[in-house]
Amino acid sequence: MAADTFTDSTTFLTSKGAAEIPHPGGTLLQHLQRVAAQLKDWGADEDVRFAGLCHATYGTDGYDRRLLDLTDRATLIETIGSRAEALVYLYASCDRAATYPALRFVDRFTGRPVEPSDAELAAFLLITAANEIDVVRHNADIRAEHGAGLHAFFTRCRHLLPPIAWEAVKETFAVRIASLDHLVLTVADISRTIDFYRDALGMEPVAFGDGRQALTFGSSKINLHQAGHEIRPHALHPEPGSADLCLITSSPLHQVAAHLTAAGVPIEAGPVPRTGALGPITSLYIRDPDHNLIEIATYD
C-alpha cells in the first residue's frame, strides 16, 4: 500500500470520526488499520488492502455507522481509487442474511441481486475473513455467539481463500485437535491382550485408577475394557474385534516383520504402500487376539 495513499486514507477516516467511534479492540480506526495490516500479511493486493482499510465507510450489515453518505462515493473514489471503492461498496451493500448461507449477493441498499466477478468474490471473502477475525479476537461474546456460524460459512467458501487466510480462519474459529491421547479397546481377555501387545509390539502395560489396565507407547496409550464390563461412558456398541488401527513404528519395517514372525504372529498383508496422516507410508497388517486389524507402518 503506497505510503502517501495510506496516509491520505487514514486522514480521511480520521476526518470522518473513525478515531472516536468505539469498536471491539479500541476504536473503529484501530480496527480498520488492523484489518489492512492483516490483509498485507496475507499478501493481498493494494486495492484489496485499501478496501479493507475503508470497508466500513458506508457502514455494513451489522455495523450500520456510516462515515460517508452513499451520495458522496466520488470522495472515496478520489481517496483510494475506483476498484478499491467498488470493493468497499460490495462489502457494505452485502445483505448477510442472503450472502452468508449461500454466497448469494443482494444489494441491501437497492434490493437488487448482484453477481460479483471471481476476483471481487475472492476479495470480498478475504476482507470478510480479516474483519471477522479481528472482531472476535477482541470480543469473546461475539466469538461465542457467531463463531460456529462464521466457521461454517468460511468452510463452505474455503476454495476462495488463500491457504494462509484459511489457516487463520481455522485458528480463530475452529476447535483444533492437536493429537490422539488414547483410545479404548474392548477385549475378550485383558491378560491375553496385554501379553500380545507387550511381546509382539513392545508396548508397556500400566495399571491406573481403580485397577484398570492400559498399554502405553510413545505419547499415547490404549485403555482396555473387559467385554461385558465396560467402563461408562463407552461406545454405543462396544465389541471385541471391531477396531482398525494404524500404528507408526520407528523400527525398520523388515525388522518388525522378522520380530512378528519369530513371535508367531501371522502377517496378513504387506509391506504395501499406503497414505498416512502426513504423507506416504509403507504398511504391513496383523491381527490381535480379538482379530482387530492392526496396521504397522513407517513413513517413507
Automatic annotation (TrEMBL):
VOC domain residues are 179-299
Among PANTHER family, the record links this protein to: GLYOXALASE DOMAIN-CONTAINING PROTEIN 5, GLYOXALASE FAMILY PROTEIN
Name of the protein in its database record: Catechol 2,3-dioxygenase-like lactoylglutathione lyase family enzyme
Q: What InterPro entries does the record tag this protein with?
A: DUF6817, Glyas_Bleomycin-R_OHBP_Dase, Glyas_Fos-R_dOase_dom, GlyoxalaseI/FosfomycinResist, VOC_core
Concerning SUPFAM superfamilies, the annotation shows: Glyoxalase/Bleomycin resistance protein/Dihydroxybiphenyl dioxygenase
Q: Which Pfam families match?
A: DUF6817, Glyoxalase
